[in-house]
Amino acid sequence: MHNKIFLHPCFARSNFGRIHLPVAPRCNIQCNYCSRGVTLEHRPGAYKRVLKPNVAVELAKRFMEKHPYITVIGVAGPGDPLYNRETFETFELIRNWKIMKCLCTNGLLLPENVYKLRDLGLDFITITINCIDAEIGAKIYSYVKYNGEMFDGTDGAEILIQNQLKGLKIASKFMIVKVNTVLIPGINDEHIVEVAKKIRNYAYIQNIIPLIPQYKFSDVEKPSKEMLRDVRDQCSKYVKQMYHCAMCRADSAGRLDERKTLI
Predict the structure, then answer these.
(1) pLDDT beneath 70: ranges in the chain
(2) Residues 19-41: pLDDT tens digits?
């Protein structure tokens, strides 16, 4: 399985490309750094428009005909893929395609969907885990919507963290896992090494992403290069670190350095 790693541009530096299908608009948590919307900015949560699964798949087919270096198709939003039935409809449409499949999730619904993802042929999964301490999580997440109820504070954070870690452990048995962690100065900068220790036996790689100051964290200063390097250095003792993240949009397509979009 790990031979596939070198064909996925996000898991290993390569000349290959990926396609993100923007079919999942809804989200079941609210991160205080997240601002989803129609924009030309090159960042997570950005997109030109949400597509129906059949439209997204047709566009992907055309893109791949023009760009034969595409090796991976995934769903990364703009909401949480597992909270949108369209995600599963999309993977069903491409189930038999001879291409690797990938998904990025906050992990809240991962335990109940992980075997379904396996059966749909997913090779890779990325889980965003920003903390393993509910007190810190209460500062990062405004709310968590789970089983038809709304939870905030440490209650919501605890549910999210428990499900993330449970889903991580199961997924690692048959998928290659990347963990994204947003570095938020003054919130989790001194805690991320604990995340690295916790995921070390399950994640192939950790991607520490510097905060983009926006939404409720618009007044939080972006982490310095020195802080980012220091946190990565600390975490590298426990889990492999990613250094080439392109902060992809929900509709990114092509090589990481091309900044193309599917639409």
Answers:
(1) 1-2
(2) 999 999 999 999 999 988 788 78
* Torsion over CA: 29, 34, 40, 41 (sign): negative
Q: CA-based Rg of the chain, rounded to a whole angstrom?
A: 17
Q: Taking phi first (over 0 means left), then psi (-120 to 50 degrees means alpha), and beta for anything else, what does residue 35 get?
A: beta
Cβ contacts of residue 98 below 8 Å, gap of 6+? none
Is the bond into 44 cis (omega within 30 degrees of 0)?
A: no
Model pTM above 0.90: yes
Per this entry, what is the length of the chain? Answer: 263
Dist. CA 35–CA 229, nearest whole Å: 25
Closest CA to 141 of 124, 164, 125: 164
The pair of structure tokens assigned to 27 is 């989200």
Handedness of CA 162, 164, 169, 173 (dihedral sign): positive
What are 122's two structure tokens?
């997913």
Distance CA(261)–CA(60), nearest Å, equals 11
Cα→Cα distances 171→65, 81, 123, Å: 31, 16, 10
Other C-beta atoms lying within 10 Å of the C-beta of residue 109: 17
Residue type, 173: K
pLDDT recorded at residue 2:
67
Q: Can you give the pLDDT at residue 46? A: 86
What are the structure tokens assigned to 99, written together?
A: 């291409």
